[in-house]
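Entry type: protein chain
Record version: 2
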Amino acid sequence: MLRYPQPITLPGRKDLPGVVLLHSFTGSSRDMRLLANDLNAAGYAVQAPIFSGHADKTPLGPLSFGPDRWLAETQAAVRAMRREYGRVVTFGLSMGGNFALRALETMAGVVAGGAFATPLVDGSPHFARTVHRYMDYIVRESDQQADFGAAQGAIEHQRAALRHLAHLTIAAAPSVHVPVLLAQGGQDTVITPQTALRSLALFRGAPASLAWYPEANHILTADPHSQAQLSRDVLAFLARL
């Protein structure tokens, strides 16, 4: 049975920056629930929106929109948080990390940010598999049908669009001078773990750091080998701002 996620909005202290958390491709705000709760317990306001195509749980939902729409949604979340709290920090999981970093590079008021298990430099070698598994899940848990063959062109188009966004992020990374936190699991089966080291090297003008979780897989915000420590690492990062 499908569960339909809702965006997360948690108010916090006005003297602390607001935090925007951005979920993964085919994921939702549930990716960020544990981290959001941990940050909010420490006083931080948190907003975790849901990208278009991800809340309605249809087989082709994440393929029906693209990076331009999701970047606009990221920007809207940042602007809303900035109106309330002045300073904003953006973090994202996997694909969401790309949007978090892009906001860091291009938006006023974003004072720091980071990306968790984000395929920035090398992309995701298993992108099509990720989409097919999502489609399988939706079909299995509902009465919907999906034409997997017809989806192939949309999958390739989406992959190319996301890589284009990543290349923009990569090109602007050397101009970043605010704190950046990257995080990566050593047992990641979705992306190549060593890509995080190459991503870290891009931010040569910033105080950038990498949190490494040797036993964790891809969803660092929920993996028992990383979830609690990631929250502690993010809180320590925020405390230094």
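Comment: The two ends are 42 Å apart (CA to CA).
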